Each structure stands twice: as C-alpha cells, then as structure tokens.
Amino acid sequence: MAGTRDEGDDRSSRTLGNGVLIGRPFGIPVFVSPSWLLVAVLITYTFGPYVESHQPGIGAWKWAVSFAYAVFLLLSVLVHELSHSVVALRLGLEVRQITLWLLGGVSTLDEPDTPRKEFLVAAAGPAASIVIAGVSFGLFAALPDGSVPHLLAGQLAFVNAIVAAFNLLPGLPLDGGAIVRSAVWKIARRRSTGTVAAAWAGRGLAVVVVFAAAGWGMVTGNGQPGIVDIVWGGLIAMFLWSGATQVLRVQQVRSRLPRAQARTLLRPALSVPGDLPLGEAIRRARESGMRALVVTDSTGHPTGIVNESAVVATPQERWPWVAVSALSKSLDDSVVLTADLDGEELIKAMQRKPAPEYLVVEPGSSRLAGVLATADVERAVSTG
Ligand SMILES: [Zn+2]
C-alpha cells in the first residue's frame, strides 16, 4: 500500500523493529520486517488462482509466479523509498535506514530544512511509483498477450499506479501531506504551521475514507457496503488518523522544546567525597541549598552522581551508615552535558545515553555547573 516517510527524528528514538538487513544500496541499510513474509504468503495464496485462471494448465508453477509477484511488489516499494532517500542524500540530508514492512516502507531521514527540500524529497517517492507503473505498462503492452510476463507487468502497472495515487492524497502521514506541508510552510514561512495544516488534512482524509468505503457499496449496487469494503476502509482510515495524530503530538512536544534548557533546569549540586556518609552529605546539601550530590575523587574530579531514587529508597535510619558512593552511578563521558545545551540538541544528547541524571559542566571547561534530572526536563516539555 503506502510508502510513508518518517517524521524526522521522532521515530528514530524508537526501534523500528529492524528486521533483516537485505543490502546497502547507495550506502543506505535496507531492512525487511519479518511481517513482510506474512504478506508475501497471503499475496502468493490469493494471487495464485488468479494466475491459473489466466494460464490454464500452469499447475503448481502458479505459486512460483505469484511469489515472484510478491517479490516484485516488495521491489516496487523499495524503489519508492530509495527514491525518497537518494533525493534526500543529494540535498545533503542524512539518511539512516529504510525499513520495508507489512504494507509499505519507512525511510528514516533527516528533516528537510527548507520547503523546497521538503517538496523534492516527498515528491520523489510517488514519482518513482509513476515511473515503475509507466515502464510496467509499456512492457504489458509490448509482451505477447496471455504470457506470464504480460500478466505480471499488467498487475505491477496497476498496483504502482494505485500506490502513487494513494500516496499523493493530500494529508500527513502520506507523501501528499508532506507536499501540502511544503506549500503551507512556503506561504506561512513556518514549518510548524505546515505540519499542523497537513496533519489535520490527514485526519480529514481518514473521515473521507470512512464515508467513501460506506458509500462504495451503494455505488456498486448492493445498496449497502460489503464487509471487505468496510474492513479495508477502516484499516486505511485508522492508518491515516493515527499517523496524523502522531504527527500532531510530536509537533506539540516540539513546540515546547525551547523550554528544555540545561541552564535553567539544572539542580545546583554539592561535591562530596565518596566515603562521606549519606546522612552528613544530605545535611550539608540542605544547609547550602543544594539539590543534588556529586561524588568527587581526591583531586576534586567528579566520579559519580548520587541517584535521587536510590536515596529515596534508602531508609532514613540507615543514612548515617551508607557511604554516598554506594548510591552513586559512576560517570562516563556520555552522561556529561554542557550547560549551554537546549531544545532539540539537549534532547538528542540525552537520548544518546538515557539516564535518570546527568552531570552538567560549564561549556569549555570541566567546572561543575550542577545535575540535570531527566524528570525535570520531561516535566518542562510535557506540561501545558
Ligand atoms: Zn513515499
């Protein structure tokens, strides 16, 4: 069905369920999700009898032909996604991977930073599908009528034309939605305005699909929609609605990202030696108005952050007997952030090494600025 594009970095933080690496065309790792096999079996099973009806006497070979058809479909989706990705690479955007899944593909790539790039990357996929449809149709017309290649070419022309048309529908998460976004972005001069408009268009499309599926039965003359129309319409509408909703949610978080500032969110921290009892360390911290504890070695170099939840979990009567080092997470460079980080950069730095607390140092030096708690950052970006 659809080849949709990933929304920037938002999904790369989640694992995509990578599947099997099948190659690296243009240096881009291409994964096939195991769910594809299921679809391949379904396609082979349903398309086999169709092949036989056009090729009486083909026998068991019909399964080979219909499996080949499933593989050609996969290749069609791959070319569609590669087209997005190669154009993105040409425009200087980073492309991390392509995943081919149940009904289409996802290219994980950098967000285009201009409306023009957005348009070019988005249009490249459907353009590739149109080219495949055209070439397949040419072969269909040229090949001898009634032959197996003629049959396959005809089917591929049809399916790729559908894929192109579907993906050009004007709403996110579809390619057509990205084209709408690029246009609104260009006019409004704000990417976020384009995103919100195109995502709402996607929700509108979902509603239209439901009505269209219901109306289809009337058109075909049964007076009521068939079960297949309803199931397909429902699936497509759900895909569109949930995709558009996801886009809106991400946009909402993004609009709050400027509030994520290491400098303003960091907790002032007290440096203590590792063998200091927790009770004494907390007394000193309270006295000096500090809200975090950092363990330092004899040279004053930070070696660990005292984990807040570990402190809470320790019964207060044991505080005099526990050394702070026992409750501290040892530091490596990856949990050290600089105080000037903010917005998306800060989130990315934290995503590189998920941790409950980060040591924050002054930029350009290793002087301790404080401790940044992940919970504080989450609170800052999530509250209305
Ligand atoms: Zn696409």
Task: Fill in the keyword field for this structure.
elongated, alpha/beta, 14% strand, four-stranded mixed β-sheet, binds zinc ion, disordered N terminus, 384 residues, 12 helices, 3 domains, 12 strands, CBS-domain, five-stranded mixed β-sheet
Structure description:
The protein is α/β, with parallel strands linked by helices and 384 residues long. It has 3 domains: 1-168, no CATH class; 174-257; 262-382, Roll (CBS-domain). It contains 12 helices and 12 strands. The strands form 3 sheets. A 5-stranded mixed sheet has the order 1-5-4-3-2, covered by helices on one side. The chain has a 4-stranded mixed sheet with strand order 6-7-8-9. It has a 3-stranded mixed sheet with strand order 10-11-12. α9 (278-287) links the parallel β6 (269-273) and β7 (292-296). α2 (61-90) crosses α4. The longest helix has 30 residues, at 61-90. Zinc ion is lined by residues 3, 5, 80, 84, 125, 167, 175.
